[in-house]
Amino acid sequence: MKMKKMKGRKKVREPRFCFKTLSTDVDVLDDGYKWRKYGQKVVKNTQHPRSYYRCTQENCRVKKRVERLAEDPRMVEVCFVEMNNMEFIGVEE
C-alpha cells in the first residue's frame, strides 16, 4: 500500500475503498462520476493491465484504480484512493 510520509511523524495510509464486480468492458464502469484516465501499467503475473483514473471535478483529489482479476477475467477490482472528498452510494467512511 502507498504511504504518505509526514515530517517528523509516522507514515499515514491514504484512505481507500476497494470492491470487486463483474464487468464486460474495463474502461466503462459507470459509477455516476466522470473520470480521466491518466495511466496504465502492466502488472506481474497477469495478462491484463491496471488502469488509473482521476476525478474530473474541480478540487477533487480522488483517484480510481481498475484491474481485471487474473483468476477470473470477467471480474474487475476497483479501488478508490483519497475518497474523503466524495460521497459514494452505500459507502460509509
Automatic annotation (TrEMBL):
GO MF annotation: an example: DNA-binding transcription factor activity
InterPro entries tied to this protein: WRKY_dom, WRKY_dom_sf, WRKY_plant
Source organism superkingdom: Eukaryota
Keywords: DNA-binding, Nucleus, Transcription, Transcription regulation
Gene3D superfamilies for this protein: WRKY domain
Record-given protein name: WRKY domain-containing protein
Alphabetized Pfam families for the sequence: WRKY
Species per Swiss-Prot/TrEMBL record: Trifolium subterraneum (Subterranean clover)
Transmembrane segments: none
